[in-house]
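Notebook B, p. 112. Complex prediction, attempt 2.
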Amino acid sequence: MAEEIVLPGWKKWLEGIGDQVGFFFRFFRNVFTGGFEWSEFVRQCYEIGYRSIMLVGITSFIMGIVLILQLRPTLVAFGAASMLPKTLSVSFVREIGPVIIAIICAGKIASSIGAELGSMKVTEQLDAMEVSGANPVQYLVVTRIIATTVMVPLLSVLGDAIGLFGGFLALNIRDSMSFNLYFTKVIGSLDFTDFLPALVKTIFFGFAIGFVGCYKGFNSNKGTESVGIAANSAVVTASLWIFVIDAIAVQITSLLFYN
Amino acid sequence: MDQVKEDKEQKNASKKKDEIVISINGLKKSFGTKDVLKDITLDLKRGENVVILGRSGTGKSVTIQCIVGLLKPDGGSLTVFGEEVAEMGEKELKELRMKVGFLFQSGALYDSMTVRENLEFPLTRVLKITDQAEIDKRVEEGLDAVGLLDAIDKLPSDLSGGMRKRAGLARTIVINPEIILYDEPTTGLDPITSREISELILKIQKQNQTSSIIITHDMECARIASDRVLIMDDGKYIAEGSFEELHKSKNKAVAAYFTDIL
């Protein structure tokens, strides 16, 4: 029915940026106006957080094991095997844990939000919500973005703990170290400059995952193919944003704490 | 004295019946270089059912999407209850949508919610009803009106096409709209279910005194539910009249719609 105007690439790109900025302000306006959908928010926290625990747990556990097994030969060669818990804890808590867990969440959560909202668009459910006088942004978008912003940091903390536990088991494959000694070394080597910036950046990771998933789903075209495109594009874009945010966060953290 | 009162009431009722609830004048809408609506003019009276017939892609659905503000017209005037839709702000548009129900072709039920939750959604979010007893009463009344009370706790995925349309209709009427816009209400249904839905549309009009615009390709639906029929082609209306009048039309373009009707 509708004949589309073909825009040049750069105009299309600029239009996309403008749309995203508009969507960003629409989200914030809806956060502070109208009622908050608590029941939908709790449901999303369950869907996004609780249902991701197993995936995040297994991945973090394996990452902890793999990191110890990879680090051990190098540190042993330098006679620094006792540094294994410290090396693992600092690298895991500062960088590897938050980024890997965020990437996993981007794959699982951003794609599922993109596909869900995309299919609601295709089946006219978003239009139905809008013409009924209800606010689809308040009900669908605000709840999902806030839920990912809250749940991704919590998943990241949980993943860190499980990863460090995996490291303990891996360490005891070749060497022998008591649980108390291992965790005393792990905790002792961390301070708030390791933990706090990592936690803060996972809040931004969570926001980016929710925002990209909602934007892609909400703005998908009308057609079944668009659902797949929305899900796929949500994962790719969210993953890219995670690396961009990480690069910025590392710069800021270095300036504030390590210089 | 009673006679005077009765006369006054009758006069008011007749005045109300002649009231124009939707007035469209010279409506235009384009998508890119394609002019979908070229010059649409339509008045919908209170309590009237108007059926719009036309080939696919002639702009029928675009017209009703403009009425609820889902699409913004490029030209012309479109007023609902005397208010220009294009000039409405978010708040006015929300108030308008509380008075105008819209039944989508697919039913557009929220598939993560049960039928009950689908009907509760506009009651709690739009009408802001907080009394659970009142909500339950209205949900049950809505489902009873479409004969779907047994499916109250089912998910949309457990319903047949006809049941989904009925549930969608129940969700539309649960807020007691003054106008209902039907987008192909019988498409994809078997003839018996189509007839049932068409009769339901008529029943709702009589019971609730609603005004409706019905977009359809189903001539049986047009025959049952219409007070007036408009035929649309290439973004304009080419014929207007009652079903019987158009049925007898000698105009070839109009007669083409009635070839299968005895």
